[in-house]
Amino acid sequence: MNSVLTRILVFLAALMAANASFAHQQKAALTKVLFNARTGNIEIMHRFNLHDAEHATEEMFGQGADIIQSEKTQKQFQQYVTERFALLDKNDDELPLTSIGYEVDGKFFWVYQETAITEAMTSLKVIHHALRDIWPKQSNMVNVEGKGKLKTLTFDKDTELLEINFQH
Fold this sequence. Notes:
The protein is α+β, with helices and mostly antiparallel strands. It contains 3 helices and 9 strands, in the order αββααβββββββ. The protein has one domain.
């Protein structure tokens, strides 16, 4: 009987340790760049793990920063993200991105942007430095949809700029 109890306790301890590890920072974000033909816009949706955003805002804006409850902190984080993300055309001209908003949704913090689709867009260059200036291990994945097959870009390590060509 003692052996069974010991096994149960070991299992429960392992389960608790696994749950604690999931609460740690993921150091990964996902951005969706959607060419929406219906609206004529490129819609950008940045998704950050709320736990990562909490730690980042405390580090950037001080101990009083509260991304869950504070509108001020949420706005600061939105501005931080929009300053570190850019789309460039084939001539290296930055596309003008409009901030649409932000929200806390469950365990994620979302930042939204958009810009008009230009007709002659044959390629797109992307810069995504959000949180990479805080954590060198941060990885930002960008999925580009609505212009041919889904294309994925990954910003990690020393990656500064990546390009997608839409021509076959």
